[in-house]
Structure formats: C-alpha cells, structure tokens
Amino acid sequence: MIDEERPEPPIADGEAATLQGFLDFQRATFDWKCAALDAAGLRATLAPSPMTLGGMLKHLAYVEDRWFSAVLWGQQREPWSTVDWAADPDWDWHSAADDSPEELRALWQESVTHSRKMVDAALAEGGLDQLARAAAWQDGRSPNLRWILCHMIEEYSRHNGHADLIRESIDGRTGE
Known about the structure:
This protein is mainly alpha-helical.
C-alpha cells in the first residue's frame, strides 16, 4: 500500500478526530490486506487456526454493527438480528465461507459506512461522553463512545496482525 492511499490520523487535532483517524487508519490497513483476493484467497487458513480473511471481513462487519448500532444506539440490524447466535456463537466466522468475495466486501463496507454515520450522530448528540443506549456488560453498565472507539481500534489492530500472517501465506504480500 502506498502511504498516500491510507488516511493518516491527524497529528494535532481534537480527541474525537484523532480516535476516528486511528480507527480509519486501521480499517484501511485491513481493507488492503483483503484487497484483490478471490474466494479461495478469502477462505485460506494458516495452521493451526481456522481463521480466514473472509471470516474476518464478516466478523468485523458484525463487530462494527454490534458496537456502533446495537450497543451505542440500541438498534438491531440485518443480518445479525436474525442469527441464532445460541446455535452458533461464531456464525459470522463460519457463514463467511458461503458468501462471495463481493458479498463479504460489500457487507463490511456498508457496515463501516453505517458506523461512521452512527459515530457522527453520537458526537453531535453527546460527544465522546455519549453513553451507549444498550448495556454491553451483564451487570448493566454501558460504555461511552470514547471507549467504543478505543475498543474498535484495538479490534482492528489485533485482526490486522492475523491478516498480515494469512495474507503473506497466500501470496507473499507483506507490509502494512
């Protein structure tokens, strides 16, 4: 990836812009790791894990919607709201093998676009201190938007490490 293609986080902006900038930087890194792969590439695994880049695309689409729609705003969205999570807690990972690369990329992109809108609305309503409308923990506590953004940066950072290894095993592509 050419550095000019990836959005750099602001170096001297406010807290919200900095957090959003780092999240977008991690999203762009992940997008680059999945770019130009066919179905076989998105289904490739690296022993001993069954994790795939296609599974990560669907998982991260779910995580985007879970935190920025379901938790932050209390809104359930398709396809997640109709999944029998009790029957398969890892449905997002498992079902990705049945989806085409185009479907997986579109689902993830749509989730990211929707998440950005949800973040903008929360910033306008209550800023980074805006509490989530749905409890995220069993004891009834809800995080604020600041925590959710930090968590999402961590989520992408962790999966970008996985994506690095899987992508290198597919075609030798390395780098950020």
